[in-house]
């Protein structure tokens, strides 16, 4: 059986946000024409995660964002910190420039974004597909949680993000009774 892949690509210009991708995931499953199987949704980035939760409720999303920003302090050297910054700040050791594999001209200090990503999201998730549809609960939807979007100001490039949707069919499902 053949597996399917769709890459969702987009610029990420806002620092921290949650974006619903459920419709795009459903579209990929529909185009694959599989009846049963699994989808794996994978972020190709260390500061952009995947979540499954109640995404349709905007106040809850804002609570998620506010909690993540309040509980993990921003690096006081970060370009996101300004005189009106309402969350806590602290000193971190991390600098993007220290990574020997980094090919970006990046002068921001984003240790907090990495910590938020491993605390509040997943790098990938797997969802079963049955009868041609993802098996999500009544209120569950799939979203990306961005922790380190860039607006392109200064030497910090706008983040070009990639999320992969892998579709793996199975021949049949036999329910155990």
Rough shape? elongated
N-to-C terminal Cα separation, in Å? Answer: 27 Å
Total domain count: 1
* Low-pLDDT segments, ≥5 res: none
According to CATH, what is the class? Answer: Mainly Beta
Rg, Å, rounded: 18 Å
Broad structural category = alpha+beta
Q: Name the strands of the widest sheet in spatial order.
A: 1-10-3-7-8
Q: What's the count of strands?
A: 10
CATH-defined architecture: Sandwich
User: Strand percentage, roughly?
Assistant: 25-35%
* CATH T-level topology: Jelly Rolls
- Biggest sheet character: 5 strands, antiparallel
SSE topology string: EEHEEHEEHEEEE
Individual helix count: 3
> What percent of residues adopt helix (DSSP H or I)?
10-25%
Overall pLDDT metric? 92
CATH homology superfamily name: YjbQ-like
Family: Belongs to the UPF0047 family.
Protein name: Secondary thiamine-phosphate synthase enzyme
Pfam families: YjbQ
InterPro entries: UPF0047_YjbQ-like, YjbQ-like_sf
Describe this structure in words.
- The chain has a single domain (4-169), classed as Jelly Rolls (Sandwich).
- The protein contains 3 helices and 10 strands.
- The model has no long low-confidence stretch (mean pLDDT 92).
- It has helices spanning 22-32, 58-71, 111-120; strands at 4-12, 17-20, 37-43, 48-53, 74-75, 89-90, 124-130, 133-134, 141-146, 159-169.
- It is elongated and about 60 Å long.
- By secondary structure, it is of the alpha+beta class.
- The longest helix has 14 residues, at 58-71.
């Amino acid at each position: 059986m053949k597996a399917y892949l769709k890459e969702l690509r987009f610029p990420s210009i806002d620092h921290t946000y949650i974006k619903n991708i459920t419709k795009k995931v459903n579209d990929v499953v529909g185009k694959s024409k599989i009846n049963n199987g699994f989808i794996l949704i994978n972020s190709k980035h260390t500061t952009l995660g995947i979540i499954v939760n109640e995404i349709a409720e905007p106040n809850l999303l804002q609570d998620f964002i506010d909690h993540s920003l309040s509980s993990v302090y921003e690096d006081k050297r970060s370009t996101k910190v300004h005189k009106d910054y309402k969350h806590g700040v602290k000193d971190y050791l991390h600098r993007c420039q220290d990574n020997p594999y980094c090919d970006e001209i990046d002068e921001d200090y984003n240790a907090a974004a990495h910590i938020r990503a491993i605390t509040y999201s997943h790098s990938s998730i797997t969802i079963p597909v049955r009868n041609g549809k993802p098996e999500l609960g009544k209120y569950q939807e799939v979203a990306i949680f961005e922790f380190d979007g860039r607006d392109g100001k200064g030497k910090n490039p706008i983040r070009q993000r990639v999320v992969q949707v892998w579709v793996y069919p199975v021949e049949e499902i036999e329910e155990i009774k």
